[in-house]
Predict the structure.
Amino acid sequence: MSRVFNFSAGPSVLPEAVLKQAAEEMLDYKGTGMSVMEMSHRSKAYDNIIKEAEQDLRDLLQIPDNYKVLFLQGGASQQFAAVPMNLMKNGVADYIVTGQWAKKAAEEAKKYGKVNIVASSADKTFSYIPDCSDLPISEDADYVYICHNNTIYGTTFKKLPNTKGKILVADMSSDILSQPVNVSDYGMIYFGVQKNVGPAGVVIAIIREDLIRDDLPEYVPTMLKWKTQADNDSLYNTPPCYGIYICGLVFKWVKEMGGLEAMKAHNEKKAAILYDFLDSSKMFKGTVVKEDRSLMNVPFVTGNDELDAKFVKEATAAGFVNLKGHRSVGGMRASIYNAMPIEGVEKLVAFMKEFEEANS
Ligand SMILES: *Cc1c(COP(=O)(O)O)cnc(C)c1O
């Protein structure tokens, strides 16, 4: 068996310890004589799995008691619709568009109400985070929406927008658990888990209780009402049982790593190795402004498409895989989520140095 260094933006690398434990428990989960995949979601064993997963996430993020944690399906994209359906009262929402995921979320919300784009960085291919200290927030906005970390473009909010008292909603799919979060700054946080937490399909929502309402329009599907899921402790129907189990193992791994402060220090150290190299290299350049650089997704280019393609090809052959940039940006992107070891980034940088010497 040989494992590669997997820089995929998602689904992405998971901690080896978690994969090993899942393998060990595959045929017989803790003496039940069956796999987690085979057990009833109403069983005692599964009840423990989902409750422990929730508690571990609550511990890690220090989620206040007046927030519900929901384990949902449909990925992050499903919440693009669920957010406006559940939060629009006046039928108005303000979106800050800092990349494709925020843009998609705004487009989806337009189906359910009026959407104002109060800030955007589309003018410079989303290579920065706009100043959000004094935005034209709508008087009657039901919420203000951000994508906290822009997976495709590699930017991140270092400072939250001034929402002028409105509820803040954040898609944290690609940076949840990479650093501490002050949950009470938000009305709602959600994340598809396949970037930093687990297998694709599961989406976790953290929602302030007073925002979970019953007075929704008739058309809202039962499954998309947060109230349905909250009243049933995420067990209204069969949840993505196995995926949630893996998320639970990852939460325990993050705890063992020392929690979110330790994760942050680890990620800062790791990202600095790559960014420092990009800043000193004559061949490779980062694509976003320094102040807004993501700790998780690092896009870079050589400025020459042929050279980019050659680099990706040779890197793949050397065991550094999934470095090709998103089709909308080109070049390369190294996603260096929690589970990417420092060694992976050190070796990648050493490889980049060799490539630069050999090709200049
Ligand atoms: C990957 C990603 C999504 C889409 O997730 P799906 O689970 O495929 O719907 C949405 N937002 C962000 C920030 C992402 O990184």
